[in-house]
Automatic annotation (TrEMBL):
<dbReference type="GO" id="GO:0004519">
    <property type="term" value="F:endonuclease activity"/>
</dbReference>
<dbReference type="Pfam" id="PF02720">
    <property type="entry name" value="DUF222"/>
</dbReference>
<dbReference type="Pfam" id="PF01844">
    <property type="entry name" value="HNH"/>
</dbReference>
<feature type="domain" description="HNH nuclease">
    <location>
        <begin position="304"/>
        <end position="355"/>
    </location>
</feature>
<feature type="region of interest" description="Disordered">
    <location>
        <begin position="134"/>
        <end position="169"/>
    </location>
</feature>
<dbReference type="InterPro" id="IPR003870">
    <property type="entry name" value="DUF222"/>
</dbReference>
<keyword id="KW-0255">Endonuclease</keyword>
<feature type="compositionally biased region" description="Acidic residues">
    <location>
        <begin position="142"/>
        <end position="153"/>
    </location>
</feature>
<keyword id="KW-0540">Nuclease</keyword>
<feature type="region of interest" description="Disordered">
    <location>
        <begin position="381"/>
        <end position="404"/>
    </location>
</feature>
<comment type="similarity">
    <text>Belongs to the Rv1128c/1148c/1588c/1702c/1945/3466 family.</text>
</comment>
<dbReference type="InterPro" id="IPR002711">
    <property type="entry name" value="HNH"/>
</dbReference>
<dbReference type="InterPro" id="IPR003615">
    <property type="entry name" value="HNH_nuc"/>
</dbReference>
<protein>
    <submittedName>
        <fullName>HNH endonuclease</fullName>
    </submittedName>
</protein>
<keyword id="KW-0378">Hydrolase</keyword>
């Protein structure tokens, strides 16, 4: 009876393998279509109008996948035009999302054909190894010195730090130039603050538990830089002239409702309301050229009111966000329009969505017990994903048995090497 039983198990396993191959091909093809949709959203930057922080955030929010899988989908969508063969393999069901995702996230330009052929047999781990073996970009060769010129020794300049800034209508760009020693100190400080932010991010993820797909994105170097600034904000205030604290000052003309930074540029209506909404800066009001004062103290959310607000809202109130750090107390009826600083007129929002609201990308209206959040088109925003039972048959694609997974002989492997742009031949 043993041979008969073993034969029955083999037949059953073969049937399961066949069904698994067919479903895998269909899943890959569906992922390929999702990538096309995400690419269209990315090209038109439609995610901003939907109230999302990025295209990856929109994908995680609306499809219910994890942030890491959403990053993979966004990476493939962003580079779909650079890897048409790999994306075609995904749409045809031959390649998986993870295989194409590794390529899109790490491969050099022009390597589409190379990795499309390799992915037909290589596992995800083998593709990662192949990408590690790829040569790094080579620096441009320096010009040849003139042999007839007399060599003149030049004294080495003393490294001098420098900071330059450029501004446009929305952003100010900082270019910081530091000697290596000071740069190492700066890098270490940035890294330590980013480590602290990541630790907080992980604690938030653990608290969210099953709702981890709604957590904020991983902290960036820019977040660490801002944390570094705030950490040293008033560390030595007593040593400054008059014990002056670091304060952002805004000047507002109450008649024309025009605001500007102190000794700085004019502010847009959105930025003026953003700065005066959470009372995180010093605002001076003027009428007919006369200074009225620094505004009512009731504009400020005191500590007790802030605690009540945090207990009630816990996270950013915008659906699909889930941010818990650095939240602003937003006036639902703006303070400029007579909105009161009380619990019913306040809501916690993250800095991104606070700016998005004041710039008209989303609308947050109250009172707090009847909170309504809509996107730029007036559509109500909810935390629910778009997933629903399918109403159409699955894609008609060939079954996918996956990569062979055989042991790779790396000494025979020829890594992709970008063509030398300096080679005229």
């Amino acid at each position: 009876m043993a041979p008969t039983s073993s034969l029955a198990q083999d037949e059953r396993l073969s049937c399961l393998y066949a069904e698994l191959a067919e479903l895998t091909g269909q899943r890959n093809a569906i992922d390929g279509r999702i990538v096309e949709i995400v690419a269209e959203i990315d090209r038109g930057e439609l995610w901003a109008g939907a109230g999302a922080r990025s295209v990856a955030h929109l994908v995680a929010w609306k499809t219910g996948v994890s942030p890491s899988r959403a990053e993979t989908l966004a990476a493939i969508a962003h580079r779909a035009d650079e890897f048409p063969q790999c994306v075609a393999g995904l749409r045809e069901g031959r390649l998986s999302l993870d295989q194409v995702g590794v390529i899109a996230q790490r491969a050099a330009d022009g390597s589409d054909e190379h990795y499309a052929q390799l992915a037909a047999t290589a596992t995800v781990a083998q593709l990662r190894t192949a990408l590690k073996l790829a040569p790094k970009p080579r620096p441009e060769p320096e010009s040849e010195p003139d042999p007839d010129a007399d060599p003149q020794p030049e004294p080495e300049p003393v490294p001098q730090p420098s900071v330059t800034t450029t501004s446009d209508e929305q952003y100010t760009s900082w270019h910081i130039r530091l000697p290596h020693v000071e740069a190492a100190t700066f890098d270490a400080a940035l890294q330590s603050h980013r480590d602290a932010l990541i630790a907080d991010w992980r604690r938030d993820a653990e608290k969210l538990g099953g709702a981890g797909d709604q957590r904020p994105p991983m902290p960036t170097v820019a977040d660490a830089f801002l944390r570094l600034v705030h950490a040293g904000w008033d560390a030595e205030a007593a040593a400054r002239p008059h014990g002056q604290h670091t304060t952002v000052v805004v000047q507002v003309d109450v008649t024309d409702r025009v605001g500007s930074l102190h000794l700085g540029p004019l502010l847009s209506d959105a930025d003026r309301q953003y700065l005066t909404c959470d009372a995180t800066c010093e605002v001076w009001f003027h009428r007919d050229g006369r200074t009225l004062g620094a505004g009512r103290s009731t504009r400020t959310v005191n500590r007790r009111l802030r605690r009540a607000l945090e207990h009630r809202d816990r996270t950013c109130v915008v659906p699909g966000c889930g941010a818990t750090r650095g939240l602003h107390a937003h006036h639902l009826k703006h303070w400029e329009d007579g909105g009161l600083t009380e619990l019913a007129n306040l809501a916690l929002v993250c800095p991104y969505h606070h700016r998005a609201h004041h710039r008209g990308l989303i609308t947050i209206s109250g009172p707090a017990d009847q909170l309504m959040v809509t996107d730029h088109a007036g559509r109500p925003m909810t935390s629910a994903s778009l997933a629903r039972p399918p109403t159409q048959p699955p894609p008609d694609v060939a079954p996918c048995s996956g990569p062979t997974g055989e042991r790779a002989q790396w000494w025979w492997y020829q890594p992709f090497e970008p063509p030398d742009v300096n080679d005229e031949g």
